[in-house]
Automatic annotation (TrEMBL), chain A:
<dbReference type="GO" id="GO:0016491">
    <property type="term" value="F:oxidoreductase activity"/>
</dbReference>
<dbReference type="InterPro" id="IPR002888">
    <property type="entry name" value="2Fe-2S-bd"/>
</dbReference>
<dbReference type="InterPro" id="IPR036884">
    <property type="entry name" value="2Fe-2S-bd_dom_sf"/>
</dbReference>
<dbReference type="InterPro" id="IPR006058">
    <property type="entry name" value="2Fe2S_fd_BS"/>
</dbReference>
<dbReference type="GO" id="GO:0051537">
    <property type="term" value="F:2 iron, 2 sulfur cluster binding"/>
</dbReference>
<feature type="domain" description="2Fe-2S ferredoxin-type">
    <location>
        <begin position="4"/>
        <end position="80"/>
    </location>
</feature>
<feature type="region of interest" description="Disordered">
    <location>
        <begin position="177"/>
        <end position="201"/>
    </location>
</feature>
<keyword id="KW-0560">Oxidoreductase</keyword>
<dbReference type="InterPro" id="IPR012675">
    <property type="entry name" value="Beta-grasp_dom_sf"/>
</dbReference>
Automatic annotation (TrEMBL), chain B:
<dbReference type="GO" id="GO:0016491">
    <property type="term" value="F:oxidoreductase activity"/>
</dbReference>
<dbReference type="Pfam" id="PF00941">
    <property type="entry name" value="FAD_binding_5"/>
</dbReference>
<dbReference type="InterPro" id="IPR016167">
    <property type="entry name" value="FAD-bd_PCMH_sub1"/>
</dbReference>
<keyword id="KW-0560">Oxidoreductase</keyword>
<dbReference type="InterPro" id="IPR016166">
    <property type="entry name" value="FAD-bd_PCMH"/>
</dbReference>
<dbReference type="InterPro" id="IPR036683">
    <property type="entry name" value="CO_DH_flav_C_dom_sf"/>
</dbReference>
<keyword id="KW-0285">Flavoprotein</keyword>
<protein>
    <submittedName>
        <fullName>FAD binding domain-containing protein</fullName>
    </submittedName>
</protein>
<dbReference type="InterPro" id="IPR051312">
    <property type="entry name" value="Diverse_Substr_Oxidored"/>
</dbReference>
Length: 201, 300
């Protein structure tokens, strides 16, 4: 067996550890460095509870060795704030919106999960929020079908997904693409119309 | 679920990677979505895991003109190109490959999973091998004795079995891009695994209103990707002007001539897979035909 010195920037902080080669990134995050928002769920790459951003891409941290993340930038849900990349919040004046001052450290996606009750036990929520942000960055105004397809890698055993889809729709309504010269922020990651949707595969 | 102990190496050149995978107990690691779950389940126990992530030379997608025939091109996909990067590149003329890549796992998995890793892992229900088989792609291997090419047809031999020797690495995949060909992939997702219960890729050309050179391949059906000869035979020469009839008559008995054992598990039986096959063959062939008709006449 081999042990390796790794340095990973997690939510902006440089974290170091000596890890066995077999150490999974999710275990290093939780147990070496105390970032407990990525959860350990199915441990087989299906449920998405361990989702983090690694160098800008959402990944399942139970399917990455900690040593593979050496030199990477990892963002957990605790490290995100504000709107997803390429989007800005519009002041929609939603009367149901969380009052100012309550949860104002949360960005629009987290607040929408709160307001629409897009969770019950909350175990899947860190992964759901990170993937929802990533989805909205790709497709700023997704259909319900695109949301379901887009979240297929994140399993929720409580909600039946209705409120999760509501939450992502509500977040989309709070956001608009930032005008750029290139205008590519809204490029769609289209989905296979032939595949059945639903989050339980 | 903790993997067993192993050593880890991350070579930064192809030569160093070949040295690292030379010992019989060394295994290459690409995107990790086949190997790492197997390590956690302890169904494999390698001495050394050789992370190929440092081999930037094996990433990227480019179009290459065919030697000797300037009217056709090959799409050259570096083996370590992630599924997401292939989809972002969105090369035209490789629709079935893009359809199949889009069907892989989910967004997080496509961000890590690689095209070459998918093929080399040879999961029997993986999507991409259907597209490479239908496209008559070529897989490029390098080993201690040099390079060799293997057709997609000859690559996978069974469940997680290929002709790749343990000291060889898959470096890139060449996919022919006939500009007037149409291709598509359709699948029934397995309700438990998320892989294909059955998946079918089809590729064909339409010349003077007639279907030419159809290739149709299924995954999830048998342990290795399987050509659907009955569909190909009935489709060749069919009238593209009557696509509904042509496709239906070609795909109704899509499983005829499939001699290898059909897979089954406690959720999807072999009979169900055979019963699902015509519908997904029909979807794939219909879409491939529509795309080919859309491209007919592109090349004078």
């Amino acid at each position: 067996m081999s042990e390796h010195e790794v340095t990973v920037t997690v939510d902006g902080s440089a974290e170091r550890a000596t890890v066995e080669a077999r150490r999974l990134l999710v275990h290093a995050l939780r147990e070496e460095w105390g970032y407990t928002q990525p959860n350990v769920g199915c441990e087989s790459g299906k449920c998405g509870a361990c989702t983090v951003e690694m160098d800008g891409d959402v990944v399942k941290s139970c399917c990455v060795l900690a040593v593979q993340a050496d030199g990477s930038e990892v963002t957990t849900v605790g490290g995100v704030d504000g709107a997803p990349e390429g989007l800005a919040e519009v002041d929609a004046g939603d009367p149901r919106a969380t009052p100012a001052g309550d949860n104002d450290e949360f960005g629009p996606v987290q607040r929408s999960f709160h307001e629409e009750h897009g969770l019950q036990c909350g175990y899947c929520t860190p992964g759901m929020v990170l993937r929802a942000r990533d989805l909205l960055a790709d497709i700023p105004d997704p259909s319900r079908e695109e949301i379901r397809e887009g979240l297929k890698g994140n399993v929720c055993r409580c909600t039946g997904y209705e409120n999760v889809v509501d939450a992502v729709e509500a977040a989309a309504a709070k956001l608009e693409p930032i005008e750029t010269d290139g205008g590519t922020a809204g490029q769609a990651d289209t989905v296979d119309g032939g595949a059945p949707t639903g989050g339980d595969d | 679920m903790i993997p067993p102990q192993f050593d880890y190496e991350r070579p930064t050149s192809l030569d160093a990677a070949l040295d690292a995978v030379a010992p019989p107990d060394a295994v290459p690691l690409a995107g990790g979505h086949d190997l790492i779950p197997m390590l956690k389940a302890r169904s494999v126990s390698p001495g050394t895991v050789v992370d190929l992530g440092g081999l930037d030379e094996l990433r990227g997608v480019e179009r290459v003109a065919d030697e000797g025939d300037t009217t056709t091109e090959q799409l050259s996909v570096g083996a370590l190109t992630t599924d997401a990067d292939l989809l972002d590149a969105a090369p035209t003329g490789a629709d079935a490959l893009l359809d199949a890549t889009r069907a892989v796992g989910d967004a997080q998995i496509r961000n890590r999973g690689t095209v070459g890793g998918n093929l080399a892992a040879a999961h029997p229900a993986s999507d991409i091998p259907a597209a490479t088989l239908a496209a008559d792609a070529t897989l490029h291997l390098v080993g201690p004795d040099g390079d060799r090419e293997v057709s997609a047809e000859g690559f996978a031999t069974g469940d997680h079995e290929t002709v790749r020797a343990s000291d060889e690495l898959l470096t890139r995949i060449s996919v022919p891009l006939a500009p007037d060909a149409g291709s598509a992939y359709a699948r029934k997702t397995h309700p438990s695994t998320g892989y294909a219960a059955v998946g079918v890729a089809a590729r064909l050309r339409v010349v003077d209103g007639v279907v030419i050179g159809p290739r149709v391949a299924a995954v999830g059906l048998c342990d290795a990707p399987t050509r659907l000869a009955a569909v190909e035979d009935r489709l060749a020469g069919a009238d593209a002007g009557a696509p509904v009839e042509a496709v239906e008559s070609a795909t109704t008995r899509a499983g005829d001539g499939v001699d290898a054992p059909v897979r089954e598990d406690h959720i999807v039986s072999a009979d169900q897979r055979r019963a699902l096959l015509p519908k997904y063959a029909e979807q794939a062939v219909s879409e491939a035909l529509a795309r080919a008709v859309g491209r007919e006449g592109v090349v004078a």
